[in-house]
Each structure stands twice: as C-alpha cells, then as structure tokens.
Amino acid sequence: MNRLLSLFAICLFHLGLFAQDGKEAEFYTSGYYVQGGETHIAGETKDIIGYMLDESGELTQQTVATLTFGVEGGSDFTEATWDYSINDFSAYLRGNGENGSSEGGTVYAIQANTNGYVTVGVVLNANKPFYILEDGQALADFNGLTVAQQYRGTYTFPVKTGSTYKIYAEGSKLGFYGFTLLYSTDASYAFEAHYMTVSTNTKNNTMALCLQLLRLSFQTLAGKRWHRVNRTIFLLHHACS
Q: Cα separation of 186 and 23, whole Å?
C-alpha cells in the first residue's frame, strides 16, 4: 500500500506543484546520513547545506539546518556501525551515554533555518519514553512516546524557521541514523496553509505524510497552478517506502 501511494504521488508531482500567494515556490530535500565508522565528540555541530532564495531573489547555497551531537562536555560518541538499513539510512550512531537533559539520555538537536518537515531515523529501545522538544516544549505526538519492542525506523515532524528541536529518549543511548529535511526555497513558506499537518505515531507517521502530500497535490491540480518541483519526489519515495 505504501509503495502504491508513493508511485501515485510521484505521478501527480511530475505534473507540477503549488505556489503560495501567486509566487513560484521550489522544494528541496537536504539532510545528513550517518556513515559507518564515523565518530563525533559531544557538542560537535554539522551544518546542512541547501538552496535558498537570498534577499535579491537569487537561489544560493545556504545553511538550512544545523545538527548538534549531544551536549558539550558529555561523553564522546562511539563509532557508527553499518547495521539494519531503514529506507535510505544504512548506518547509525549508538549514542554517547547520559547527557543532554535532566532525564539523561543522548540528545540530538536540529536547528531549523527554514520551515519544513524533518524525517529522522532512530533506534528506540522498548519502554524508553521518546521526546522531540520544540524550543523546550514537547511536540504533542512525541511527548513520552513508548514502543513495546525496539523500533528501528523513522519519525516525521514539522519544523519552523529559527526553532531548535531536541530529540532524545529518557535515560537511553538513542540510536541515530540521520535525518532529511523537506523545505521550500522561501524560508517563510507556510506549509500549514496547505494542510500539511502530520499526526504521527509509530504505526502511521509515514502514511500520514504521504496522504497529506497527496491531498496537497489534488488541491494543486484543481487550482491549475503548475509549477516546478525539485527533488520532492525523492522525499515522497523515502517517506512512503
């Protein structure tokens, strides 16, 4: 079913995508994929480069997000391992011990420089409360989420320009495969205006995203607003597979 939705969505997006307030909007995905053998020190940061419109309206390479591994002063991360691929992620970090929050547990922080949707790959152990905090406040769908058995998969959530998202499991060395970010070249693009609100949980997070993107496609086609799309098809395939 997921792959059928993916193929259907790809066909729709080949026809064209949407604009906001009559302005053309282009869409990209950028991200970070953990590679086997890599290591990190606590507090290390990684800038994620993408394409954004500058003040003159030109498309230029800019930092669309910044990833922080743990918290400065904490334990170093152990070497990433190639094991159990999920979607396009094929290696993960095993965490770095207790640091980063009052509850303890490895923390990964993503600072967003544009509006969009993040899909993060994790290894979440059973019965460990899982959180995603937006500027210190837990997102409704990720406020102590638990699973009955170890979960290796992805979660998708919306991000806002200028906000920081901390991802961790209480008292656990959360495994981390990396993340992808779907975003518009216009940092102010209001995804929520096009009903791309995703209700996520362990069973239906990717399905919900696919269905919302399909709904958005139908609205676009009905309005006969034909615009280019760049690499959004990649995210659809990644989310629905």
A: 10
Q: How many residues make up the chain in this entry?
A: 241
Tokens of 1: 């079913």
The pair of three-digit structure tokens given for residue 172, joined into one six-digit string: 């656990």
96-136 tens-digit pLDDT: 765 545 456 789 999 999 999 999 999 999 999 999 999 99
- Rounded-to-integer distance, Cα 126 and Cα 106, Å: 16
Q: What are phi and psi of 43, to 5 degrees?
A: 90, -5
* Token pair in block for residue 192: 């929520």
CA end-to-end distance (rounded Å), the chain: 9
Backbone angle region of 16, left / alpha / beta, with phi > 0 → left and psi within -120 to 50 → alpha: left
Q: Which residues contact 79 (CB under 8 A, 6 or more apart)?
A: 37, 38, 39
Question: Comparing C-alpha atoms, which of 3, 14, 27 is closest to residue 217?
Answer: 14
